[in-house]
Amino acid sequence: MLSIVDKVLLLKRVELFRDLPGEEVARIAEIAEEIRYPPEAVILEQGSTDDCRLDCIIQGEVLVQVDGRRVSRLHRGDCFGELSLIDSEPRSATIIAETEVVILRLSREIFLNLLEDRFEIARGLIVTLVRRLRVTYRQFQTTGEILPGSVVGVTES
C-alpha cells in the first residue's frame, strides 16, 4: 500500500494533476483508491456502462483494444476512463494489463466535484483530450481513415 506522500509524487506525474499545488494533489491522493492488477487482467471492458471512473496508471503498462484490435498502449502517468467519466456513455475500449499494473482510481462523483473546485484539473483534462484528438487527426492525414477507438490512447506504438 502506497503512502499519501508516494501517491502525491506519482500523481504529480499525471498530466491532469501536474499543475495543481501539492496540497490539492494530497487531497486527491487521500481519496484515490489504489488498485493492483496482475498481467493479462481485464481492467475495463469495451461497451460496459457500469462504474464510470478515472484510472491513473502509476505503475505498469496497459493495452488498449477496440473491437479486439490493439490500438494503443498506455503507461505510468497516463489516465483512462475520462470519456465515460464525463458523458456516462459506454466504454469505448477494453483495457488489459500487460504487466503488473497499479492504478489510482477516482469515482465519477469525486472527479466531478474536483472539476468544480479546481479549474486546473479541467484544463488538464482538456489538454489530454486535445492531444488525443491531434493524434487521431495525424492518423487521418497519414492513412485517410480514422482507426476505430483511436482517440482512446495517445501512445503510438
From TrEMBL:
Residues 16-132 form the Cyclic nucleotide-binding domain. It comes from the Bacteria. GO terms for biological process: monoatomic ion transmembrane transport. Keywords: Ion channel, Ion transport, Transport. This is Cyclic nucleotide-gated potassium channel. It comes from Kolteria novifilia.
